[in-house]
Design a protein that fits this description.
Blueprint: H1 2-26, H2 56-60, H3 75-94, H4 100-120, H5 125-146, H6 149-172, H7 179-195, H8 197-220, H9 232-253
The structure holds zinc ion (ZN).
C-alpha cells in the first residue's frame, strides 16, 4: 500500500507538473489556465494530443515544436520531473493518510509560486489565494474524517502568527519583505502547523538559512548585487518542503513536538 502510494503520487506529479507549466506561463500574463488548449507560442498551432505526455513528448520531439521547430523551454520537462520527485517524497513522508491530497496540493502550489517568483519576482495574488483555499478545504476534510480538529486549530493559529510577524516586517520596511510574502505566509503556517508547531519553527528557520546560504554563494560568485531583490518565496517554499521531508526525524531527535 505504501509503495503503491509513492508510485501513484509520482505519476500524479508528472501530470500535475504538466498543468503547473500552464499555470507558470499563463497566470503572470493574466490568462485562463483552462482554455484555450496549449499551443506553440511562435507558430500558434495547437499541440497534438500525443505531444502532451509529460517529459516523454519533450524527449521525442527533441525539445522542439513539431510544426515550426521553435525550441521548447527546458522548463517544461524540468517542472514535470521536479513535481514527480517532490510528490513521491511528500507521499513517502506523510504516508497513507487522509491529509495526503492536502500536502500534494500544497507542494504543487509551492513549485508553481517559486518558479513564478524566480522569473518575475512576484507571487500572484490570485494564485496565492486559490492555493490557500484548496489547502484549507482539503485539511478541513482530513480533520473532519479523522476528528483531529486540534491539528486544524494549531494550523490556523500558526497561520495567523506567521502572517502577523510578516505583516509587521512589511509595515516596518516593505523593501525587506514584499506583501506577496505576507499573503503567502498564511498557507505556510497552516500546512506546517497542521503537522506540528515544531514543523513551523523548522520551516521558518530552514527558509532563512537556505536563503542566506544561497545569497552568500551568489554574492561571492559576483552574480548578486548588494541591492538585488531576491525571490524570497522560493526560500520560503524550500524551507516548507525541508520541514515536511525532514521534520519528523529531526524534531523527534531534538525531542520537540
Ligand atoms: Zn511552433
Amino acid at each position: 500500500m505504501f509503495t503503491l502510494l509513492i508510485v501513484v503520487s509520482g505519476v500524479a506529479g508528472l501530470l500535475i507538473g504538466s498543468f503547473l507549466n500552464v499555470v507558470i506561463y499563463r497566470v503572470p500574463l493574466g490568462l485562463s489556465v483552462v482554455s484555450p488548449p496549449s499551443a506553440c507560442p511562435r507558430c500558434a498551432r495547437q499541440l497534438l494530443f500525443r505531444d502532451n505526455v509529460p517529459v516523454l513528448s519533450w524527449l521525442w520531439l527533441r525539445g522542439r515544436c513539431r510544426f515550426c521547430a521553435e525550441p521548447i523551454a527546458k522548463r517544461y520537462p524540468l517542472v514535470e520531473l521536479l513535481t514527480a520527485t517532490v510528490f513521491a517524497t511528500v507521499a513517502a513522508r506523510v504516508g497513507v493518510s487522509w491529509a495526503i491530497p492536502a500536502y500534494l496540493v500544497f507542494a504543487a502550489g509551492l513549485i508553481a509560486l517559486s518558479w513564478i517568483d524566480v522569473e518575475s519576482l512576484t507571487l500572484p495574488k490570485r494564485l496565492v489565494y486559490v492555493h490557500l483555499a484548496l489547502v484549507v478545504v482539503l485539511l478541513a476534510l482530513a480533520s473532519s474524517v479523522t476528528h483531529h480538529w486540534r491539528h486544524l486549530l494549531v494550523g490556523a493559529i500558526c497561520a495567523v502568527g506567521w502572517w502577523t510577524l510578516f505583516f509587521l516586517l512589511n509595515l516596518l520596511n516593505p523593501r525587506w519583505l514584499g506583501f506577496g510574502d505576507v499573503r503567502f505566509s498564511l498557507v505556510l503556517g497552516l500546512a506546517l502547523g497542521w503537522l506540528s508547531f515544531g514543523h513551523v519553527v523548522l520551516g521558518f528557520f530552514a527558509a532563512n538559512l537556505i536563503g542566506l546560504v544561497v545569497s552568500l554563494v551568489l554574492l561571492s560568485m559576483g552574480k548578486l548585487e548588494r541591492n538585488t531583490r531576491i525571490p524570497y518565496g522560493v526560500f520560503l517554499s524550500a524551507g516548507a518542503l525541508t520541514s515536511i521531508f525532514f521534520g519528523a526525524p529531526l524534531l523527534s531527535s531534538l525531542a520537540i513536538h
